[in-house]
Amino acid sequence: MEKSDAVFVGSIPEFYDEYMVPMIFAVYAEDLARRVADLAPDRALEIAAGTGVVTRVAARLLPESVELVATDLNQAMLDRAQAIGTTRSVRWQQADAMDLPFESASFDVVFCQFGAMFFPDKAKAFAEMRRVLRPGGTLLFNVWDRIEDNEFAATVSSTLADLYPTDPPQFMARTPHGYFDLDAIAHDLTTAGFTSPPHHETITARSRATSAEAVAIAYCQGTPVRAEIEARATPDLATATTACAKALTHRYGPGPLEGKIQAHIITIAAPAE
After folding, report:
1. What percentage of the chain exceeds 70 in pLDDT?
2. Which among 59, 68, 57 is positioned nearest to 31, based on CA atoms?
3. How far apart are the first and last CA of the chain?
């Protein structure tokens, strides 16, 4: 993973929240937050909260007596999340997943939606999550499946590869869809000190958007793909976005569109001692 892959700054948080969240993140946010609520924690920690899509659902489902702490590496994403707000009090805090600023054994649940793929050292990040979990506590996280099982992302990436044949943007395949191997995930969790085997489910859903243009803007301007495009001289960002919109229209037709999305949900318990 390149360092820029984890940087969500400038106008990216706004585009991300407006386009990406309803299109691909909301359905999985409901699922993950419900799983957290079912565990009935007293104290819960969210890693890589982004603009707060899971946080808002968790705040709605968890009793107000539950302390909910939401963190992200990028302060700009947390600023957007705080501006949107939640139905009850949430503690927002900038934090690096590989160096969490919390005491050991201080949370019943740690959860993370589509953030593990961005950790430069995944085993180290998981070890930090295990450290802050109380004995027997639960780590829940989800990761995207391979890009071929996520149709909008695959279409955009293929189009960009055609536009920049000598140096195609690789962010989507490299990072969001680059950590789907369940054996590799299990290995990283074991390296991190988890002793029980992880439980996983693969959940397929439908991604819906009002138009091909909305999908193109979401991926080209609401993710670090934007930095990859802008780093190349030509075509420019507007041209690349238009090309992706045309490719999506060609595949799905005009008007509202929907495509397959697929992710793995991982659950594992911290050691009891």
Report:
1. 95
2. 57
3. 34
Which strand (E) or helix (H) includes residue 14?
helix 12-15
As a whole number of Å, the CA-based R_g of the chain is 18
Is the pLDDT score of 122 beyond 50? Answer: yes
Coil, strand or helix: which one is 208?
strand
Residues 6+ apart with CB under 8 A from 207: 23, 24, 150, 151, 152, 258, 259, 260, 261
* Residue pLDDT, tens place only, 183-230: 999 999 999 999 999 999 999 999 999 999 999 999 999 888 999 999
CA 260/CA 28 separation, integer angstroms:
13
Q: Say what the pTM is.
A: 0.92
b/e code 228-267 from CB counts within 10 Å (16+ = b): bbeebeeeeeeebbebbbebbbebbeeeebebebbbbbbb
101, 55, 156, 1: CA torsion to nearest 10: 10
Q: Which residues contact 144 (CB under 8 A, 6 or more apart)?
A: 114, 117, 150, 153, 176, 177, 179, 180, 261, 262, 263, 264
- Which amino acid would we find at residue 219? Y
What's the average model confidence in pLDDT over 13-23?
Answer: 79
Of the candidates 145, 141, 170, 146, the one whose C-alpha atom is nearest the C-alpha of residue 158 is 170
β-strands 199-209, 257-269: how paired? antiparallel
The confidence score (pLDDT) of residue 14 equals 76
E strand or H helix at 259, and its extent?
strand 257-269
* Residues 155 and 248 sit within 8 Å (Cβ to Cβ): yes
